[in-house]
Fold each of these.
Amino acid sequence: MKKTTVLDIARMKAEKRKVVMITAYDALFAKIFDEVGVDVILVGDSLGQVVLGLPNTLGVTMEDMLRHTGAVARGRRRAYLVADMPFLSFQTGPGDAIRNAGRLLQAGAEAVKLEGGRNVEATIRAIVSCDIPVMGHVGLTPQSVHRMGGYRVQGKTDAQRERLLDDARAVQEAGAFAVVLEGMPADLAAAITEALEIPTIGIGAGPRCDGQVLVMQDLLGLFDEFRPKFVKRFGELKGPVQDAVRAYADEVREGKFPGREHSF
Ligand code: KIV
């Protein structure tokens, strides 16, 4: 299969083909997802919760993102690879933002994603001016958890709807090639998708986005500390994984494993 590029992702909207995006954090899963033919792999800063055991994404560092982006880059061959810019890697000014985005590209990413709308317009412009493709992320932005007072659906009032539409426009005007719409009413996401020329990729934003993204542990049924309404579990892998480990533990305890066939 041919390598997916930023041009392919941009073209998919005009061709009315849905963009399929999934998160990955290591080489093994990146290879598995790549073989299935997903369009985009995102090294999300959701890494904080689903891999590092942190309470939110705010503790994820550039070093964490570089390590995991490198691992995913080594596992995937065809999918387009986007890496999240973690908290404080871009908010402190365009110089830091460019440098950190560049470091993620050096680790193997082909684009970076950063959260925010009109407030990060100049930052996106600065990164894009250095030939680094940027994916935007508006609506429920997890790095703003304390401002939002929790992980709440955004864009419920008329004023908030106007602001989110303006945020998405700002991201497009700044030169982003695509934008994630997270945690907003389906009709607002549909209106933003219609208003923009760049593809929208939804998560908790209804079916009328140009693509969808899910966190791999959610869709595989591995993560069950909380189950947001927007997550569909396409597999229930926690049970089979625990069954296998239980069987292993039983056989070790009963002296059945390793048998002669596993011994030298
Ligand atoms: O960090 C992440 O995994 C994300 C997706 C949920 C869009 O930003």
Amino acid sequence: MNPMLGFAVKAARRAGDIINRAAENIEQLTVQHKTKNDLVSEVDRAAEAEIINSLKNVYPEHAFLAEESGRTGSSEFEWIIDPLDGTTNFLHGFPVYGVSIALAYKKQLQVAVVFDPCRNDLYTASRGAGAYLNEKRIRVSKRDKLIDCLIGTGFPFKANSDIETYAEMFKTVALNTAGIRRPGAAALDLANVAAGRLDGFWEIGLSPWDMAAGALLIKEAGGLVGDLEGEDQFLETGKIIAGNPKIFAQMLSTLRPHSKKLT
Ligand code: IPD
Ligand code: CA
Ligand code: CA
């Protein structure tokens, strides 16, 4: 295993231990609102500190971009971290949340880990070496007609979040697919595309830490990831479409007409 991936896996499992321990006593957690509907708990912070400390121990010169502590350090190597993706689910005891860690070198994603502590499922990828779930190779689905597809998404929930345009997109996708799912943790949704359980995914208003690891998983599983113009700017714009290559193309032509209306 790529040594950097090995250290990322260790860090993700440690964060998973913190999350699992805290899940036994959710009512006792202190929760703060960052903005409306955007929650952070002491678990998010403790898991993030654990991940950063354990990676810093090995790579003291690397930079970090993490949800709760922002950007620290300056290096061509940057770790992109969501210590607990799906905080709202976690705080409700709804078992869909996970840890997401990616490493970029000169802005190019190199290794990815998404860890689902509820199922003890570990998704890993390194550039050029494929994607794995618990050490078994995973590939995107083979479905080729959008109408047969199960598509994941996330609802915009912050103020001024293009909810009207999103609702139009939702309607189009709902009418042209087998179904839509909104599990509530973008990193796991993308991992599920990589594993072929969802045929595609789209969301607007995401942050780099929600997408970085999941995007590399999908690419290494043979899928495509892009923004709503079909370009590669999803980490910058927060707008993402992903899927197997055939479905990516069909989602793009379905959703692109709406993207001009987004702010
Ligand atoms: C959220 C989840 C959710 C997505 C939100 C994200 P968080 O991450 O990934 O599925 O719809 O946009 O902010 O805040 O729970 O880490
Ligand atoms: Ca997140
Ligand atoms: Ca988070």
